[in-house]
Design goal:
By secondary structure, this protein is of the alpha/beta class. The chain has helices spanning 6-9, 36-41, 62-75, 88-100, 115-123, 135-148, 159-165, 167-176, 191-207, 224-227, 249-258, 268-279, 291-301, 338-344, and strands at 32-34, 47-52, 80-84, 103-108, 127-130, 152-153, 182-186, 213-219, 262-266, 310-315.
């Protein structure tokens, strides 16, 4: 069934100003996939689901927040939107800017940004500028630019981004009939964990759906919220969460505290192992998206009690975002003859 997009579906719950314009690429309505075999591999006795945000229009959860931010910006007359990005935000900003008929400018950090994400931003028509610095440097620059020029900032520091992103929590509750007992979520700039908490809190206040514990997961090479200090040169194979100074870090730590949850870090090896586990269930995600599962696996190994729980892993981006991370096997070459192919089966 076609989705009308989150701004229409959840209009009663999203706080946008009257000047916001209607905008949609049919974002949202992503599947909550049960993965019982994966639960068994992790020890069983609990229900496990994957919220697969990689099936949004540009392949990541960023579309939810971006449709709201661009809708508001265009409604107040903005002709250009700008963001700093490790890739996914750039793709979403460029797509919704194109849909709305305005320009998009994206600043990306030096170093590796997944080709699939840059290709998306380019084809949607964004002006892409790479700086000799980190994501955090890029974010400071776009904040300065938007303060001095009539250009709308659409990073997660924009409050309307969270208004859109919180709708994923609504969808989880709509499908389960309640909030899960535990939500496992990757943490980079920390806007998504903050938005999920907003969504669960809003639904609980009205529908008594409950509030999950939050398990926030960072990569070891980019784990400022675990280390308790800024990481000047963050490094991880999970480029979407390669952020050393999260804009909403303090809010994310409040979420962890208020829900009795935990913020932890996992290694790149653990992330890639989790990505493979998800692929064996037929779910291909970019590396950062596998951080939630990696964190859950680590916590279960350390004794986390799981019996009878409903657990949701948030997978934030599609595997096609970063295909180069996959080591391709060399295919066997044979003549087009049945018997020769049969020998390989």
């Amino acid at each position: 069934m076609r989705s009308d997009g989150i701004l229409k579906k959840y209009a009663a719950y999203i706080k946008l100003p009257a000047h916001a314009v209607p905008l949609s690429l049919s974002e949202g309505n992503t599947p909550l996939i049960p993965v019982p075999k994966l639960a068994q591999l992790l020890g069983g006795n609990f229900e496990l689901f994957v919220k697969f945000e990689g099936l949004n229009p540009t392949g990541s959860f960023k579309d939810r927040g971006m449709v709201a931010a661009v809708s508001e910006a265009v409604g107040r007359g903005a002709k250009t939107v700008i963001c700093a990005s490790t890739g996914n935000t750039a793709a979403a900003a460029a797509a919704y800017a194109a849909r709305a008929g305005v320009k998009a400018v994206v600043l990306i950090p030096g170093g590796h940004v997944a080709r699939g994400k840059l290709a998306a931003a380019a084809i949607y028509g964004a002006k892409i500028i790479q700086i000799d610095g980190s994501f955090d440097d890029a974010l400071k620059l776009v904040q300065e630019i938007s303060a001095k020029l009539p250009i709308a900032l659409v990073n997660s520091v924009n409050p309307f981004r969270l208004e859109g992103q919180k709708t994923a929590a609504f969808e989880v509750c709509d499908e389960l009939g309640q909030a899960p007992d535990l939500l496992c979520i990757p943490v980079g700039n920390a806007g998504n964990i903050t938005a999920y908490h907003m969504g669960f809190a809003q639904y609980d206040a009205e529908k008594k759906t409950g509030m999950p514990q939050f398990l926030g997961v960072q990569a070891e090479g980019a784990a400022p919220l675990v280390l308790g200090k800024i990481v000047e040169r963050p490094e991880t194979i999970a480029t979407a969460i390669r952020i050393g100074n999260p804009a909403r870090g303090a809010e994310a730590l409040e979420v962890i505290k208020n829900t009795g949850g935990k913020m932890l870090a996992v290694s790149d090896a653990e992330i890639l192992a989790a990505q493979k586990m998800l692929a064996e269930e037929g779910i291909w995600v970019e590396p950062a998206s596998a951080a939630g599962l990696a964190g859950l696996k680590k916590e279960i190994k350390n004794g986390l009690e799981m019996s009878g729980k409903k657990v949701v892993i948030v997978c934030t981006g599609n595997g096609l975002k970063d295909p180069d991370i996959v080591a391709l096997p060399k295919p066997a070459k044979v003549r087009p003859i049945f018997e020769e192919i049969l020998k390989l089966l």
